[in-house]
Amino acid sequence: MSTETRKLDRVVIRFAGDSGDGMQLTGDRFTSEAAAFGNDLATQPNFPAEIRAPQGTLPGVSSFQLHFADYDILTPGDRPDVLVAMNPAALKANVGELPDGGILIVNTDEFSKRNLTKVGYDSNPLEDDSLEKFQVHKIAMATLTIGALEETGLGKKDAERAKNMFALGLLSWMYHRPTEGTERFLREKFAKKPDIAEANVLAFRAGWNYGETTEAFAVTYEVAPAKLNVGTYRQITGNTATAYGIVAAAQLSKLPVVLGTYPITPASDILHELSKHKNFDITTVQAEDEIAGIGIALGASYGGALGVTSTSGPGIALKSETIGLAVMTELPLLVIDVQRGGPSTGLPTKTEQADLLQAMFGRNGESPVPIVAPQSPSDCFDAVVDACRIALKYRTPVLFLSDGAVANGSEPWMIPDVESLPDLTVEFATDPENFQPYSRDPETLARPWAVPGTPGLQHRIGGLEKQDITGNISYDPENHDKMVRLRQAKIDGIEVPDVEVEDPDGNARVLVVGWGSSYGPIGAAARRVRKLGLPVAHAHLRHLNPFPKNLGEVLRKYDKVIVPEMNLGQLALLLRAKYLVDAVSYTKVQGLPFKAEELQDVLADVIKGVSA
Amino acid sequence: MTAIDLGIPGLTGVPTTDEKQTARDYKSDQEVRWCPGCGDYIVLNTMQSFLPSLGLKRENIVFVSGIGCSSRFPYYMNTYGMHSIHGRAPAIATGLAVARPDLSVWVVTGDGDALSIGGNHLIHTLRRNVNLKILLFNNRIYGLTKGQYSPTSEEGKVTKSTPLGSLDHPFNPVSLALGAEASFVGRALDSDKAGLTSVLRQAAEHRGSALVEIYQNCPIFNDGAFDVLKDADEAQRRIINVVDGEPIRFGREGEYCVVREGFGLAVAKSADVDASDIVVHDASDLNLSFALSRLSTQDLTHTVTGVFRRADRPTYDDGVRAQVGAAKAAKPADLSKLLHGKDTWTVVG
């Protein structure tokens, strides 16, 4: 029988299984295959906070969603077209999002009575009619994998663990993916355990062959490579791009980097990545706590290095006092907050953008700090380089507000030409003639960076209020007022690019404003409503403090401004306060990124309301 | 910047000068503002007199402090200095020491700053053996907040916050530091300039973390806390000054000594014991150092001074730099190569 091949412009696949089933790895590999093939893509992992929640339970379900297309896409996709469910829990947790007619591939081996009962199935959904609206493929993946590995001599348990590669092989066949990369990857990953490597390769091929020989699949699909801009690409996650941006900033500024940090989800991968690049003069210190982490970073900055600390929301709460000290001592410092669901411990593995006001105001006193937020995984690179530029040029701590969605999500990245990156070199103070620790550059209002070891510049700094120019301790009321205003003026005067408005029709009366990781869903929703003939303008903010100089003018141009956020309206509050515009919030705080579909409806309603 | 090996391990890498230095060179232009009679003055003067003897370039010396009366110290030193935040000086100093091998970094802290709010950083700094000299001014009271009990105040201490007496059991800072794997621990009295200078010198020459506890009088909120140690007669019976390699005797004529008792140590009259039973101090012996720390009692019946422990152990900051150095030697810093990684694809027009 010949299999029909259908061409598609885009597909969303979701792999779902138990935390121990290797779904993240499976998704990652499929992503690499799609990248190697030249599709545009975006991914979204979703995993529990528990390392191993009880096996087969709903809280233990781990999934990885991948969207790939033959054109440039902005999001990991709202709903899967294909759901791979490795057990009843994965089915139950995800099937609600599979649209009617969607493809459902199920590992039947796990559908025992016990496992079904564990997640509250009274009857086996594979045997009743509850799944009849989907194209269901029931496959005994574990049994088939064990069978395929029979001759390897591997124990049943070890063999069964390769079933995720069986699933990957099958999907790779279905979507005409190249396979060499995955086989090479498996051999490298398990280089020290060649029998395991071979088992995984065999399972992967077994899955492929199953698709090709069983005649169970009448159709396979092709998604052609995307027409992306000319250049060399790689796949990258937000946390890796952030780490690379820091490495780049070190090279561009010719400074050593000292990362002082404490492990916390979802920021730890920045530490893991940077610790591999010591050859770039990067030191990583895993401190005893969050406070020590930033203290070490600030101490290093005082010594003339680029101090960096990385954390997530609860860690920022602990670091606040030291951020205040960095504001007072006016030293460069990069503070990375990979936001997660809050408050308190909140939802450690889920995403949210609810630390904006903490970043903006979460310190005692008037303590202004610039804020930079990346809009996508690959954008973390440019955004963090820019955050370092601000820190070094203006001698200030800078808050970099990434979040779980961009940190763990991945997409193709057009690798920049190193020569095109900005010059971040700094000048240390060296001239003892008329040296004053708190004199200021008239343009930037930055004070001199006078590092220990420089002859003749001995001076003392600290958290007590500084006398203007001399930096001596001062309790003088007028001086305090002046210094508060000077520190504010320095931050207000930071040069940031104007915000660009995307309004292809040029006649929009509604502006949607977002920041950070909601760029994808907002952008996708805007495209969709425009296709419906409803014009909308989209402005996305990378710089939250200070705001771009043209922002007020932009906001006032439109009849209606809508601000979708994964919080209860924090940016909207700032925009309303600063610009006196009647910005309308659309908020959702579920620990998950917005869906383009829901934002499409929201935007369409607003646009129709304005037109009416 | 040239790194010159002084032959003194603790200061290796810190540049020296041939210029003659005096105590005056180390005085900043800031007016010293401690209360009249504060022990901090004596420690400051001792430090300013002592530092010239190290012959270091003044610009390569940094004092980092936390918060509290003692933490004003950096303002009065004509070196680099940072008056940071409560309890965090060891962390900030760690970052500085890691980034800059050419600096002699000193931390000035008090019993509240180091042992209460900053206890975590203190123990981890000592454990890592970062090349820092930590001066712990212990006056057994909170001075800057006007007289609450501290983690070294005696049980039952009546203060503003404990009108019925403190219920807190105090730390023995030397025992704590030894328990935290400190490679150097010493103790001195603010009033004993010679003894303090000797301990400071040994601390400076030690490579690694050095904790020096300094008993320091607060004339306002805990006046006379150490008076029994400052009375010439009483001091003879109470102060046990230890010197590495020497038998531990004390008293005007050496009439008292330290002997082994069970797993610990005890004080005896020299006349009552065989000379061979008198313990010889060995600063590399952790068990002995710890037992000595336990001889010191909160009521000051006995107080051991001098250097309890001095052990050679790799320092954290040297190790960090060695790893970075090895990585640099092994692999060139090729940014473009890093950004490209292993898997790329090219879109052509």
From TrEMBL, chain A:
All residue ranges annotated as the Pyruvate flavodoxin/ferredoxin oxidoreductase pyrimidine binding domain in the record: 257-468
GO-annotated biological processes: response to oxidative stress
Pfam families with a match to the protein in the record: PFOR_II, POR, POR_N
InterPro entries: 2-oxoacid/accept_OxRdtase_asu, PFOR_II, Pyruvate:ferred/Flavod_OxRd, Pyrv/ketoisovalerate_OxRed_cat, Pyrv_Fd/Flavodoxin_OxRdtase_N, Pyrv_flavodox_OxRed_cen, THDP-binding, Transketo_C/PFOR_II
GO molecular function list: magnesium ion binding; oxidoreductase activity, acting on the aldehyde or oxo group of donors
Keywords: Oxidoreductase
Residue ranges of every copy of the Pyruvate/ketoisovalerate oxidoreductase catalytic domain listed in the record: 20-207
Gene3D superfamilies xref list: 3.40.50.920, 3.40.50.970, Pyruvate-ferredoxin oxidoreductase, PFOR, domain III
Domain Pyruvate:ferredoxin oxidoreductase core: 508-572
PANTHER family assigned to the protein according to its UniProt record, in alphabetical order: 2-OXOGLUTARATE OXIDOREDUCTASE SUBUNIT KORA, PYRUVATE-FLAVODOXIN OXIDOREDUCTASE-RELATED
Protein name per its UniProtKB record: 2-oxoglutarate ferredoxin oxidoreductase subunit alpha
Species annotation: Lentzea albida
TrEMBL record, chain B:
Gene Ontology biological process: cellular respiration
Key words of the record: Oxidoreductase
Pfam short name (any one): TPP_enzyme_C
Taxonomic superkingdom: Bacteria
Keyword Oxidoreductase: yes
Residue stretches making up the Thiamine pyrophosphate enzyme TPP-binding domain: 67-214
Family matches, as InterPro entries: 2-oxoacid:Fd_oxidoreductase, THDP-binding, TPP_enzyme_TPP-bd
Keyword ATP-binding recorded: no
UniProt-recorded Gene Ontology molecular function terms: magnesium ion binding; oxidoreductase activity, acting on the aldehyde or oxo group of donors, iron-sulfur protein as acceptor; thiamine pyrophosphate binding
PANTHER family (alphabetical): 2-OXOGLUTARATE OXIDOREDUCTASE SUBUNIT KORB (PTHR48084:SF4), 2-OXOGLUTARATE OXIDOREDUCTASE SUBUNIT KORB-RELATED (PTHR48084)
Protein's UniProt name: 2-oxoglutarate ferredoxin oxidoreductase subunit beta
Species the sequence originates in: Lentzea albida
